[in-house]
């Protein structure tokens, strides 16, 4: 466990003690609680979300939700922290219109057509090329529409607020799927 998260847990719990009803715990219980909070914060939330301002906003949100004056549990606090600390997702690059994707598609060999959406993100490629990709895969590879969409969405985020690591894992899973499908 990272020592920074223990410091963060101390900061959060200290603020909660000031803001909400103190439940008078002995030192051993308080130490165990700090350890649990540190582990949960480290495993369930991105470090850039844990700022002093966001901690105060999350406590204010919990006070508005609860209204009874008791401090939140760690999961309740993390939910509040996620709600108040919105991180704008990074967008894929925007096409300036300099590349003729239809010509690239028409001049591509079979291997280049297979890797087309690995080489070019779907948001840059016009819809006609996506349609040609799906038709080509259905005719020559026997892919279903779902399989074609899977490859088209190679550069897409697998879920909202997905980080770079989740995108990379998703891309590996897509390539592994097609490698196993090809062998089968």
Structural class: mainly alpha
Helix and strand run: HHHHHHHHHH
Rg from Cα: 24 Å
Overall average residue pLDDT: 82
Keywords:
184 residues, mainly alpha, 65% helix
Descriptive account of the structure:
This protein has 184 residues and is an all-alpha fold. The protein folds into 2 domains: 3-84; 101-183, no CATH class. 65% of the residues lie in helices and 0% in strands. The chain has 10 helices and no strands. It has helices spanning 3-19, 27-44, 52-66, 74-84, 101-107, 110-114, 116-119, 127-141, 145-152, 164-183. The chain is elongated, with a radius of gyration of 24 Å. The two termini are 43 Å apart.
Task: Describe the protein's topology.
Elements: H1 3-19, H2 27-44, H3 52-66, H4 74-84, H5 101-107, H6 110-114, H7 116-119, H8 127-141, H9 145-152, H10 164-183
Concise description?
This protein is mainly α and 184 residues long.
